[in-house]
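Hi team,

As requested, here is the filled-out complex form for the adenosine-3',5'-cyclic-monophosphate run. I kept the field names the same as last time so the parser does not choke. Let me know if anything looks off before we queue the next batch.

— J.
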Amino acid sequence: MTQERTFAIIKPNAFTDGNAGKILARIYAEGFTVVGIKKLYMSKVEAEGFYAVHKERPFFGELTEFMASGPCIVMVLEAECAIKKWRDLMGATNPADAAEGTLRKEFGASLGENATHGSDAPETAAFEIGYFFSGLDLLM
Ligand code: CMP
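And here is what came back:
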């Protein structure tokens, strides 16, 4: 079966609430390979570049302020159908709509502070992985 890579973030609220370890444990338990991982503290400009696709949205300012409000963990995850598998594990974007057992249900506080991010398509994953990782970071 073909392996796929996706990009994931443990967002500042989950990191500062002390939930990064629990989220990582779920990632390993679900069978992902963590190909790349690092903690970083995004600047506002870096957050704006990452979420540029949303720059016309009314929540862009709030979103990028939040992502630059504390440290987060960025990761490259590998699995069969990794993009869908990670989105299924995260649950719905709004934690209020997320199913029991999903990460956003357990660790999300609100639509903005929803604990985790994941790529939504292969092209997005390629952009997002390249935004934070070099090829050398991802040798296995
Ligand atoms: P994420 O998967 O990181 O992709 C874009 C983010 O924008 C999304 O998760 C939400 O956290 C955030 N978002 C989407 N809609 C809203 C909104 N109406 N208000 C605030 N944040 C939003």
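Two things worth flagging: The radius of gyration is 14 Å. The chain has a mean pLDDT of 98.

Thanks,
J.
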